[in-house]
Amino acid sequence: MGHLQLTGERMSVPATVESFLANLPELLGTMLRDPRCLVAIAEFTYGRYVQFRVDGGLVIAEVVSNRYIVDFVDGDEALLSESDEALLREHGWEEPTLSDCPNWRWTSDDASNLLLLAGMVREVVVRIFHERPFEEMLFQLWVFQESAPNTSITAA
């Protein structure tokens, strides 16, 4: 994947869950080597998403929190359960905060952690979001204009 195909902000392209997960390690590596500050968002059913920002060697990954799922659908069927949240904690995701980081978050400035992150995201998509390989999802990739590595990524 040495070359990134930007979609533009809020402009999604369809993909399958299987293709997204298979290409995620290479996507993250290519984003890390790119000198621009890049944002990628993978959107799944019920308004659930994972998003990434890579800027100057820092990788920030976020998993949607119930705060944003509630805004997307009526009812509780899409909300992360207590066991889902326990699994996120167990896999190293930092809990959401009310101010700076309203989503579950993971950061690293070590490129050797990209495969670890790809595995963590696979766990989220398969075990928490319950997405199947053949299901469609949406993907966005764009250049983030305001480089501010320690703040939350602009949500989908």
Overview of this structure, please?
This protein has 156 residues and is of the alpha+beta class. Helices cover 31% and strands 23% of the residues. The protein contains four helices and six strands. It has a six-stranded antiparallel beta sheet with strand order 1-6-2-3-4-5, with helices on one face. Strand 2 and strand 3 form a beta hairpin. It is globular and about 40 Å long. It starts with 12 loop residues before the first strand and ends in a 13-residue tail after the last strand.
Order of helices and strands: EHEEEHHEHE
Q: What would you call the shape?
A: globular
C-alpha Rg (nearest Å) = 14 Å
Structural class: alpha+beta
- Strand count: 6
Percent in helix: 25-40%
Mean pLDDT: 87
The unreliable regions are: none
Beta fraction of the residues?
A: 15-25%
- State the major sheet: 6 strands, antiparallel
Number of helices: 4
Strand order of the largest sheet: 1-6-2-3-4-5
End-to-end Cα distance: 24 Å
Short summary:
This protein is 31% helix and 23% strand.
Give the topology.
Elements: E1 13-16, H1 17-33, E2 38-43, E3 49-55, E4 58-63, H2 66-72, H3 82-90, E5 104-108, H4 114-128, E6 136-143
Antiparallel strand pairs: 1-6, 2-3, 2-6, 3-4, 4-5
Helix pairs in contact: 1-4
Task: Supply database-style keywords.
6 strands, alpha+beta, six-stranded antiparallel sheet, globular
